[in-house]
Amino acid sequence: MDERPLILLTGATGYVGGRLLRVLEGEGFRVRCLARRAAFLKYRTAEGTEVSKGDVFDVPSLDQAMEGVHTALYLIHSMGATGAFEEMDRKAATNFVGAALRAGVRKIIYLGGLGEGPNLSAHLRSRQEVGRIFRRSSVPTLEFRASIVIGSGSLSFELVRALTERLPVMLLPRWVKVMAQPIGIEDLIRYLTEAVTLPLSESRVVEVGGSEPLSYQDLMEAYARERGLSRLMIPVPILTPGVSSLWLGLVTPVYARVGKKLIEGVKNQTVVHDPSARELFSVEPMSAREAIRRALMNEERAFAESRWTDAVSSAGGKPPGPETSWMGARYIDQRSRRVSTTPGRAFSSIARIGGRNGWYAFNFLWRVRGAVDYWMGGVGVRRGRPHRRELRSGDHLDFWRVERFEEGQLLRLISEMKLPGKAWLEFEVKTEGDRVWIHQTAIFYPSGFLGRLYWIAVKPFHELVFQGMIRNMVRWAEAEVDSPFVRERRRFRGLKG
């Protein structure tokens, strides 16, 4: 029988919880996750981690998840929900602490928000009310209060990123001068991890933040410096938080509903006043600029190591058509098609692209783009491919280079063209039962405003080229060709364009 204390983690599918789960598993903790979508977590947890299907609004499922738990981590809130999120937060917290009492839980760890004063925003007021509900119970509770979290995927950080990336000229309302104390996601995870083993006999509040307070304007300027962006910031005496939230919905519509609630709270200063975190924990918080730098570096590494069909769509479905979206600082164009052939045959249609074999659709446009690149001092398309039938990592492919190659499964190309940003093109073969799919994903990471203009300018051509490419790739894979390779190429000429 495993004698290690059992930890219940809520919010494991969320931004902070997902990262904390990996750390807890890596350090050998015994973890049980409470999740509404248990199937989503099933293949994302380590061996030995339990997944309990349930919901904080479903008391029987909570009671089941709490059985045998020593420490419960509460990393959820209802801010993204429609309706009265404060009442939902209140009910969820009451249900959670009731289940913890019935199960004899020894400690609750809760992540709330910094802020003080009688005029707290509804968002911060609700976060702090949840902490009070926990602390008023007889279960010892450690309530962390944090400001903005800096890390790829954090809503606050993504709002700062979207505004800074998309607006070369920014009109800055008075609220951008409000002080905050952003904390890097790595530091926050270390605090939460150390808290699991911290002895706690009574409830208390611990304020955590980065190494120094700074304003929202300082944060945007720090992000711009790290990305090498030149931004003109003009202070104006208008645009209250309420009006700014409406404007935000136009600039960054993907974040409009939740972002509105965050923006309404920026009138509240969120800085650390209580230094006790330094005494209780071994964490030496990094600066905001270092946190931004590390967030961008970690994002690049994780993005390079991931399979993009999994990263773009976590729902597990295989969309039959194009799906264009904005992911972090990148534009994504994803297309998937089912192919009636074997996985090997499907991948052979992928591995033959480029050079004299062509690009399956509108080859004259590829040559025009290569000529423009050559005229601008780039490599153009004169390099072709080193071998007509074989590829490996590091090979050049016209104005691309093979960044990652997994025989029979994956081909990822990185562009070596002269571009206002970075571009990748990935192809992957996946099977689902007896069905075979080809996934095609184009990624563009724009560099500032010019990069965005470039994407807008070429997007109509992408629609034609990428759609034709995957369509003809599937046709080639499904063609019953048993002749030598050179005859295959002649037969395929009729499918081009």
Features:
17 helices; Alpha-D-Glucose-1,6-Bisphosphate, Chain A, domain 4; Rossmann fold; disordered C terminus; 497 residues; 22% strand; alpha/beta; 2 domains; 7-stranded antiparallel sheet
What share of the residues lie within helices? Answer: 40-55%
Model regions low in confidence, pLDDT < 50 over at least 5 residues: 310-327, 481-490, 493-497
The CATH C-level class name of the largest domain: Alpha Beta
Approximate strand percentage = 15-25%
Number of domains: 2
Mean pLDDT: 82
CATH architecture of the largest domain: 3-Layer(aba) Sandwich
Tell me, briefly, the overall form: globular
Describe the secondary structure blueprint for this structure.
Layout: E1 6-10, H1 15-26, E2 30-35, H2 38-42, E3 50-53, H3 59-66, E4 69-74, H4 85-103, E5 107-113, H5 122-135, E6 141-146, E7 149-150, H6 155-166, E8 169-172, E9 179-180, E10 183-184, H7 185-197, E11 204-208, E12 214-215, H8 216-227, E13 232-235, H9 241-251, H10 256-263, H11 276-280, H12 288-305, H13 308-312, E14 323-327, E15 330-339, H14 343-351, H15 363-375, E16 396-397, E17 400-406, E18 410-415, E19 421-432, E20 435-446, H16 448-478, H17 485-492
Helix pairs in contact: 1-7, 3-4, 4-5, 6-8, 8-12, 9-10, 14-16
